[in-house]
């Protein structure tokens, strides 16, 4: 059973969250117009002088960024020039370059033409002179369907200004300056990444780095999850999950499986009755593959937010959108948060950590989210009994107790409308031999 579980876990692991490269561009498309008054400037990136780049840089405003809902100017965090989209027009034709087709093939899961499901909206022009940079941040979500960001780097003489992307403890560096410098033909560098991924721009050490940023939205046509044509990743997950379900020693009486999703999803901040199941249309990468696999198996799965309300006591899974950050202070002083989550927000206690009676000693060996499902007789009566026991197939992320991780507070735009929620998938399975059982999640409403 352990071997099968490990194989399944491996197939669920997050894939690289970005795609970068260089594409040939028709030289006619490398023209940029810009200006904030009646007299517009024009730059031809096929043959650009440093005086022209200096003029473009001097037309820019100092770039600000968002810390929570405040627009902040702080050159120790972000030093760059920017132009809002009203003040420039690029002749670059994204579709003609085919770069989105290449990038999205990897980033989107599901059948059909990924390009047809994505809209790219021009966002800003940035100019990084010598000593400019942007420290680690996560792009601010501007809608539930925003799933990615795209940065285009023009071929100008410059050094430094690499994009570093960090995800699930891994780090990747894209030296866009080097990549465009060594490409003979007229070209641009590009990097597309999921917008919930942490990234930074290292200091430019020479010349001017000019970029265009785009927001990537998924359009009306989501992946056809109801009749999924399983991609090879989804097929792998399905086969591995099936093997586990076919094992008589795995949850012989049936129960709940929990899957921590790999990515964060934007949810409207103020909609407390949010049904998380709408994220199904915007799933990214292996999260989409997992859901497609579940749809193809006798598994009833539902999205929930997981909040670790008290490090000692375990996890609450709440149904509607719930903004932990905005919980009034008196909730904490008048009673345990768990009570409110349970009474008012449809929260369920999941696998509280075990403590010995009359002792604060933690029996779970420091494991935050224990997999075992037995409750011993010496269970501390003051700890809440679980509403449901969940077998976590893969562990929830470290920061699952916060709907926003610290780095998520640094965005590229102040916004309080959407926030990235950490969502998990809770699935019910029947006993061995009859896995096709009905969802029976206690207070969890089936959708
Ligand atoms: O200009 C770049 O390379 C990236 C800029 C960025 O990360 C942003 O504007 O959010
Ligand atoms: Fe960014």
Automatic annotation (TrEMBL):
Residues 119-218 form the Fe2OG dioxygenase domain. It comes from Meripilus lineatus. Residues 357-383 are annotated as: Disordered. Keywords: Dioxygenase, Iron, Metal-binding, Oxidoreductase. This is Fe2OG dioxygenase domain-containing protein. Residues 369-383 have a biased composition (Acidic residues). Signal peptide: none annotated. Its cofactor is L-ascorbate. It comes from the Eukaryota. GO terms for molecular function: dioxygenase activity; iron ion binding; L-ascorbic acid binding; oxidoreductase activity, acting on paired donors, with incorporation or reduction of molecular oxygen.
């Amino acid at each position: 059973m352990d071997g099968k579980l490990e194989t399944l876990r491996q197939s669920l692991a997050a894939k690289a969250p970005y795609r970068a490269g260089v594409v040939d561009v028709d030289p006619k498309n490398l023209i940029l117009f810009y200006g904030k008054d009646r007299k517009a400037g024009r730059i031809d990136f096929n043959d650009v002088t440093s005086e022209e780049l200096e003029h473009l840089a001097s037309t820019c405003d100092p770039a600000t960024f968002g810390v929570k809902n405040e627009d902040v100017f702080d050159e120790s965090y972000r030093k760059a020039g920017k132009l809002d989209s009203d003040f420039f027009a690029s002749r670059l034709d994204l579709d003609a370059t085919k770069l989105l087709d290449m990038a999205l093939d990897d980033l989107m899961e599901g059948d059909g033409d990924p390009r047809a499901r994505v809209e790219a909206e021009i966002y800003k022009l940035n100019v990084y002179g010598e000593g400019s940079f942007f420290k680690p941040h996560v792009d601010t979500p501007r809608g539930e369907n925003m799933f990615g960001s795209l940065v285009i780097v023009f071929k100008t003489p410059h050094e430094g200004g690499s994009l570093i992307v960090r995800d699930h403890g891994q780090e990747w560096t894209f030296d866009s300056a080097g990549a465009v410098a060594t490409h003979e033909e007229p070209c641009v560098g590009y990097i597309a990444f999921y917008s919930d991924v942490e990234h930074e721009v290292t200091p430019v050490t020479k010349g001017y780095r000019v970029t265009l940023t785009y927001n990537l939205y998924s359009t009306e046509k989501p992946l056809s999850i109801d009749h999924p044509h399983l991609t090879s990743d989804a097929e792998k997950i399905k086969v591995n999950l099936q093997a586990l379900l076919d094992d008589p020693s795995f949850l012989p009486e049936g129960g709940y499986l929990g899957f921590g999703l790999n990515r964060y999803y934007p949810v409207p901040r103020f909609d407390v009755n949010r049904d998380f199941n709408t994220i199904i249309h915007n799933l990214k990468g292996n999260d989409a593959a997992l859901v497609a696999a579940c749809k193809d198996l006798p598994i009833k799965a539902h999205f929930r937010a997981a909040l670790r309300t008290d490090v000692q006591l375990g996890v609450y899974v709440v149904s509607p959108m719930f903004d932990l950050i905005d919980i009034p202070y008196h909730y904490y002083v008048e009673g345990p948060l768990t009570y409110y989550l349970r009474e008012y927000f449809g929260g369920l206690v999941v696998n509280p950590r075990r403590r010995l009676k009359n002792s604060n000693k933690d029996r779970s060996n420091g494991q935050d989210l224990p997999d075992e499902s037995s409750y011993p007789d010496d269970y501390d009566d003051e700890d809440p009994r679980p509403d449901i026991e969940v077998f976590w197939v893969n562990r929830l992320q470290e920061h699952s107790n916060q709907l926003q991780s610290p780095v998520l507070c640094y965005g590229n735009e102040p916004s309080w409308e959407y926030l990235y929620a950490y969502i998990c998938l809770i699935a019910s399975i029947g006993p061995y031999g009859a896995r096709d059982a009905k969802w029976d999640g206690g207070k969890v409403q089936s959708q």
